[in-house]
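Annotated sample (chain length 351).
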Amino acid sequence: MNLKTLRKKIDSIDKRIIQLLNMRAKITVDIAKIKQKSGSSIYSPDREREVLSKIKALSKGPLGESALDAIYREIMSSSLALEKPLKIVYLGPEASFTHLASLKRFGSQVAYVAANSITDVFEDVERGAADYGVVPIENSIEGIVSHTLDMFVDSDLKICAQIVLDVSHNLLAKCSKEKIRRLYSNPQVFGQCRIWLQENLPALELIEVSSTTRAAQIAAKEKYSACIASSLAAKVYNLRVVASDIEDSPHNITRFFIIGKTDVKETNHDKTAALFSIKDRVGALHDMLLPFKKYKINLTKIESRPSKKKAWDYYFFVDLEGHRDNPKVKKALLELENKCTFLKVLGSYPV
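Output written by the structure step:
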């Protein structure tokens, strides 16, 4: 079979794909009308997970899972835009890792707004200036993002979904590596690339700035300067990727929460996040954890934070396997509530 014949086959398939995509889009609009009448949320992480699982199971190749995920991410992003002009606020500035995580989950067809702080993300969603917010919660190297945890204490917003992002650091510049004289990034990123920098650019002047985005902005304007930032920053600020994946640890992963005003339905592959506080007595924390052991519920994280209301008073943040509507989880949380001084379920979300 010659090239011309094969290309005709592709043209024919493309025609069918476009027809099917538009058929899908029309059904999406009908679904949106039903959702609006019932007051349901436009964004459904539970349904999203179901769709992605099904299409991956249906595929026999040669397209891999990551390719299918990227294709359907944009299909679903377009569907969201048809259902309602969705606005997502994220911890900025533009080209930050939170921005990258937002794009990974919501695609390119929704509106994005950069917020100056985690507090601003929560406030924008609470007052309806944005439909959903994206905030970092944990890094595999740096640990928990305490500001995000603290915001949940007084906020009525719920955790709707999580995004797990492999953090990749890249050397970006407009000149070659040999011509670089100054390197910009934030202190945490320099720490995460320390070995690579010592081996490849030992004599370089390292200049700390507030964010990787700020570093990219400077490198884009300043001659013989470079930055360590994301691949998205390279596109946004017209920089060349001089070296990619320069982080010392191959397991640099950041977890983000999507926050909104609505609960998410059970998918059978969920986690639940909760906050609680306890009385100051011997064995109190041990007693709080007994209900989870009793009902064989796995805790995947427990973190303490000062309550800031009085000295030596703490909140405990837990992540546990299962949805809040699961009978065993319900029983465990009820027993915990009866033992502690304060309990707040932050939300259940698909894993």
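Annotation: The longest helix spans residues 3-38.
Annotation: The chain has twelve helices and 15 strands.
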